Amino acid sequence: MNELPYVLAAESELPMPMEYVGWSALALSLLVTIAWLAYFYR
């Protein structure tokens, strides 16, 4: 039963890096889309 606080603490630290991963993936996909559109419509 003593493991529960450590598990909860570990889980509470997880969303922050995943949030950065999500935002970086979004930014990368936007850059790829803009580059593709610039190449396609030139």
TrEMBL record:
<keyword id="KW-0812">Transmembrane</keyword>
<keyword id="KW-1133">Transmembrane helix</keyword>
<keyword id="KW-0472">Membrane</keyword>
<protein>
    <submittedName>
        <fullName>Uncharacterized protein</fullName>
    </submittedName>
</protein>
<feature type="transmembrane region" description="Helical">
    <location>
        <begin position="20"/>
        <end position="41"/>
    </location>
</feature>
